[in-house]
Structures are given as structure tokens and as C-alpha cells.
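Worked example 2:
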Amino acid sequence: MEIIGYAASVLIGISLGLIGGGGSILTVPVLVYLFGLDVFIATEYSLFIVGVSSVVGSWSYFKKGLVNFKMAFIFGLPSIISIFLTRTYLLPLIPEELFSIKDFILTRNIFLLLIFAALMILASYKMIRTKVSSEAVVIEQEGNKTIWAMVQGIVVGILTGLVGAGGGFMIIPALVNLLKVPMKMAIGTSLLLISLNSLIGFFSSVNDTKIDWNILVAIAAIAIIGILIGSQLSKKIEGKKLKPAFGWFILIMGIYIIVKEIFF
């Protein structure tokens, strides 16, 4: 299973390099189901893996001038603050057991996985949708688009803090639709934001987690190889063409997690 896990780690990097998001949504399931890690530890590991690989990916976009620092600040500052608060104060408040119904006990691990599965299904919907059909909403919010982007930044930070996902599937639409950033630049800016969010989330709570650095560095290194491959492929393949197929895969994974954790 670990061999399959390392192979899947390459796919995490490729998707990050190719479409600027979505790869992080695979990291926690890979760590939990293929490497057998506890969910809470998996979210911590995920932040490091996604953060480090995104730094590498954002660097190639930065050299091409495809990172918008102004928009990264607008979206990133509230996101960074919310992820720090979530990892430091909110996550430790979740009890080991939330409640039980007959033989079913909703533990913290199951609760986090269910949130994660819901996030995967939401991400899949956004990826499968080939065309944004919310023009009326965008026009209505035109005057408040910066505030709305900051609100989405807060939501991304909370979700990243809870489940260790970078939130690229929410960042890119916000940058493109609300802040009018071109797609290629939105991908580069998204990778920068994901790296900042993830690494700040990791280091804000790393002292509370026992880290196996050998496994963590190995997986991160493989993901970095994947993101380098993805960055090269992005020159020949349009990431948006692959999003629907990747979205269906994410949808199946999300449904699998819900069924497995509730019924099995």
C-alpha cells in the first residue's frame, strides 16, 4: 500500500503543477488510507507536503511573471490569519468523541474525514462545471468583489486549518471571477497562496504533533517531482481541459470516504 501511496504522491504534485489546485485534496486520503496515518496527523503532514511542493510550483510561475502579489495579499492575509487561529485554537477544542448513535460513534477522526469528503464533493462540482454560470452574481457583487474575495480567503483558511487542504479549487475561481486575474496568473498566484497557507498552518501546530520526518520528507520530495512534471505539462496541455475528469475522480473519492466511514 505504501508503494501505491508514493505513486499517488506524484499525482498530487502533477495536479498542483498542471491545474494549480486539487492535488492537495488527495493528500489526506493518501496519507490515511495508503500510509495508515491517524487523520489528525495526516492533516499536519498534508500541510507540509502541499506547502513545500507548492513553493516549488509557484517559483516556476514567479520566474515567468505569473504571480500577482497584490491579489495574493488581498486574498492571502485573511486566509493566513484564519488558518493560524484554526490550527492554534479551534482544532484542539474538538473532542475525541463528539456523540454516539447506537453502535456508531462519531470520533474526531471520522468528523474530520466527513468534512474532508464534503469538501471533495464541493471541489468536484467546481471542477466538473466547465463554464461559470454565475455572471449575474458577479455583476451584482462587482462593487464589493475585494471584500467578497477576502471573505473567501477566511473560509479557505478555516478549511485548510481543519483538514489540511490547500483550497486551490476555491482560490482560483475567486481570483478569476472576482479579482479578474488571468487564468495562468491565477494558477501561479494560487500556488503561492497555497504554499503560504499550508506552511504557516504546519508550523503553527507542529509542536503538538510527533513527526516522522523520514516519511514526510520522502512523500514531499516525490510530490515535488510531480509538480515539476505538472509545470512542464502545463506548457503543452491546458489544465482546464483536464479539470472535469479530475473532478469526477475527486467525486468518487469523496463518496467512498463517506460510505466507508459511516457504514464500514
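The first strand starts at residue 97 and ends at 101. The chain has one domain: 2-263.
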